[in-house]
Amino acid sequence: MVTFGIERVFREDIDLVKGRSYALICHSASVDREGRYVFERLCAAASTRPRAIWVPEHGLFGEQAYMEPVPDSVDTRLSVPIRSLYGDGPDSLAPSREALNGVDMVLFDLQD
Fold first, then answer.
1. DSSP class of residue 15?
2. pLDDT computed for residue 50 by the predictor
3. pTM of the entire structure?
4. CA–CA separation, 23 and 106 (whole Å)
5. Could you tell me which of 83, 12, 85, 11 has the C-alpha nearest to residue 53?
6. CA distance 22 to 48
7. Considering the chain, what percentage of its residues have pLDDT values greater than 70?
8. Is residue 87's pLDDT more than 90?
9. What whole-number distance in Å separates Cα of residue 7 and Cα of residue 75?
10. SS3 6
11. Which residues does residue 3 pair with via DSSP β-bridges, in sequence order?
């Protein structure tokens, strides 16, 4: 049986993120074995909500076209800022110092 790493976090290691100031790098393919979005599960409780969600090319839901800049936004439903790692220039391809300020760790969940 294949177990996604994020499944292990939810099942065994939730203290890894609980109460921490972390950023989540994910996209629309970041789902658990039941097809639920990882970011929705993590944002469901204030104690596991990331400080920010950082998204790669195409945006959180794949809404941007190939080579199209992805704008930053705030998802009011999730109560978390969505930051682009694929903006309109080379400086946008990595988090800024400001974006990293106060972040203790970065959790990656990028499935292809």
1. G
2. 95
3. 0.85
4. 5
5. 83
6. 9
7. 98
8. no
9. 24
10. helix
11. none
